[in-house]
Batch of 3 targets.
Target 1
Amino acid sequence: QVQLVESGGGLVQAGGSLRLSCAVSGSISSLNVMGWYRQAPGKVRELVATISSGGSTAYADSVKGRFTISRDNAKNTVYLQMNSLKPEDTAVYLCNVRSVFQTLWGQGTQVTVSS
C-alpha cells in the first residue's frame, strides 16, 4: 500500500522559515504531480503549490515569492521551503500526489506561525 509520510511542521515566529518534506513509500507512476495543500480551522482546503514530474511549478498567489516547492524523483520526495512566514500561514499542511492511476493524501502536518 502506498503511503505519504510528511515531516517538518512546527511552531515558528513570524518571519521565520520551515521546510516540509513528504516521502512516498511504495510504488507510484513516474508521471505524477506532487503538491501541498493547507487547511486552516473553519476554512476550506486550499492549494499551496504543485510540481510536476517534469519540474513545472505553480503557486497560490498568497505564497508566491515566499515558498518554494521542489522534488527529488529518485527519492520520491517533495519538499516545501517556507520563508518569511506569516500568522495567516498557520494551517495543517497536507501532501498530495496524483497520477492517472491514483490520488494520494498525507496525514497532514501542523504549521503554526506566531505573531
Target 2
Amino acid sequence: QVQLVESGGGVVQAGGSLKLSCAYSGDVVNIHIMGWYRQAPGKTQEPVAFISRINSNYVDSVKGRFTISRDNAKKTLSLQMSDMKPEDTGVYYCYGQQSGIAYWGQGTQVTVSS
C-alpha cells in the first residue's frame, strides 16, 4: 500500500508562483512513475506532469512554467508552478504507480485569480 498526501495549495494572483508537495509513504520502493493531475471546475481530470527515473514530461500548457521533482530521501514529490494563469485553477492530485496499481492523494485546491 502507498499513501499520498498533498499540501501547498491556495490562492495566487495571475503571474504568481505556488509550490505543491506530495508526501508519500508505505511500500514506495517500487514506485517508478509519479506525477500530478488536475481537474478544473466542470472539466475532466487531465495529466499535468510526470517524472520517472529517466525523465520528466509535461502537458503542453504548462511547459516552461511548471517543474516537477522528486526527493526520494525525503519521500516528497513537488510541483513548482510559476507564471500561473487563471486556467491553472483546479484541484491538483498527486499520483503514483506501482506494479500496475495507481495510487492517488486526496487533492489540493489551487485558485489563480485574474
Target 3
Amino acid sequence: QVQLVESGGGLVQTGGSLRLSCAASGILVAFNAMGWYRQAPGKQRELVATITSSGSTNYADSVKGRFTISRNNAKNSVYLQMNSLKPEDTAVYFCNYRANWGQGTQVTVSS
C-alpha cells in the first residue's frame, strides 16, 4: 500500500521560501517518477514539478527558476524547495505517485 505524507507548508511573506517534504512508503522513490501538484481555492489541481527515476525534472512555467524538486533516496522522500514565493503560489500542495496522493499541505503567501 502506497502512502505519501506531506509536510512543511505554512504562512510566509511574499519573497520568502518554504521547503515541502513528501515521505513515501510502499514504493521506492529512487525507482519511480514522483510529482508535486497544487490546488488553489476554486481552481483545478495543476502540475507543479516532476522528477523521474533517472533524475530528470520538469516544471510548470509559473514556477521555473523559483522551485526545485529533489529526492533523498536514503530517506525515501521527495522535496520541493520554493523560493521567491508569490501570493499566487498560495494553494494546497500534494505529493503524487501515479494514482496515489498525499493529504496535502497548505502554503499561504501573504502580500
